[in-house]
Design goal:
Layout: H1 3-29, H2 31-38, H3 42-66, H4 72-92, H5 96-125, H6 130-159, H7 162-182, H8 194-199, H9 204-225, H10 227-235, H11 242-264, H12 268-289, H13 293-321, H14 326-356, H15 360-385
Helix pairs in contact: 1-3, 1-5, 1-6, 1-7, 2-3, 3-5, 3-14, 4-5, 4-7, 5-6, 5-14, 6-7, 6-11, 6-13, 9-12, 9-13, 9-14, 9-15, 11-13, 12-13, 12-15, 13-14, 14-15
Amino acid sequence: MTRTQMAWAILALATGGFAIGVTEFAIMGLQREIVLDLDVSYGQGGLLVSAYAVGVVVGAPVLALMGAKRERKAYALFLLVLFIIAHILSFVAPNFETLLVGRFLSGLPHGAYFATAALMSAQMVGPAKRGRAIAVVLSGLAIANVSGVPAVTWIGQLFGWRWMFLIVAGLAGLTMLAVAFLAPRQDAPAGASVKGELRALANQRLWVGIGLAVIGFSGMFAIYTYLSHVAVEVTGFSDSALPWVVFIFGAGMVIGTFMGGWATDKSVLGTVLIAMIMVALFMALFAALAHIPWVMLILLFCVGVSSSNLSPAMQTHLIDTAPKAPQLAASFHHSAFNAANALGAIVGGVTIDMGLGLRAPAYAGAIAASVGVLIALYAIWLTKRAGQKV
C-alpha cells in the first residue's frame, strides 16, 4: 500500500470510532427528551448510559475472542453490522425496555471494533508509527464530542430523539462502505486461537495495565460527569455558556489524543507516566482554582489534553503486554475505559453527597491519578524486568 492508501484506510476505520463516540455521549444530552416521551423517571433514563457501558464491558472481551482467528477486515465489517442492527432496534423501540435492550446491544461491538481497527492500523504502518495510527482511530471518540455529539443532540431536540439512532446507523453504514473499499485484508496472526488469547489472562502485566487504565481514566470522568454543575455553581458561568465549556474540554481531548499518539511512538510507558503526573497536577489545580473563570477554562483544557494523552499509550501498552493475544488485550482498553466511566461518576457523586462540595470530584480525580503514577512506575519495573522496551 502507498502512504496515501494507508491514510485513507485508517481514516475509514476512524469514522467508525466517530459513530461510536456519538452514540456513547449524545444519549446524555437527549435523556430529558427520552424520559418525557417514554414517561419514565430520570433514574431510569440514566440506565440508558449504564446499559451501554455494561454492553461495552461484556462485549469487548467476548467479541474480541470470537474474532481472534478471523480475517480482521471482514470481522470489522461484521461488528459494524451488529452495531447498525442495534441502532435500528433502538430507533423503532416501542417502549423503554426495548430501548434499554437496544442500548446494551449497541455497546457490545464497541470495544471489539476499536481493538480490531487499532490492530489493523498498527499493522499497516509498522512498529515505528503505530502509536500515531492508533491515535487516529481513537480520535473519532474525541472528535465526536466536539462536533458530532452537539450536532446530533441539536437535531434530536428539534426533530425527535429517535433520529440520533438513525443518524448513527447511517454513519456506521458509511463506515462499512469506506472500510470495504479502502482497507486491506488482514489475516489473523499465525497460530492465533481462542485458547491462546485466554492464556494471556494469566499475564500479570496485562492486569496491571488494565488497573492502570481504570484508575487513569476515572479521574477524567469524575470531572466530566459533574462539569456542568461546577461551571455554573462554582465558576459562575450561565447555562447558555455550557456548550462552550464542553467544547473546550473536547478540544483538549482531540489535541491530547494526537499528542499522545506521537509521544507513544517515542516511549509507551514514558507517555503514560508523564500524562498521569500531568493529570494529577491539573486536576488538583482545577479543584483549587475553579472559581476563576479564565483559569478554570485553561485548566479544563489541560485536563482534557493530559487525560487523552493516555488513550493511545494505554491501548498500545495493553497490546504489548500480550503479543500472542493482541485482539483480547486491545479490547480490554475499552472495557477499562467504560469501567472508569462508571467508577469516576460514582466516586464523584459519593464525595459530593458526603458534603465535600462540587470541587471534591476533581480532588478525588487528582488522588486517583496519583495512585496511577505509582501503578505506572510498577508497570515500568515489570516491563524492564521482562527485558522489553519501556
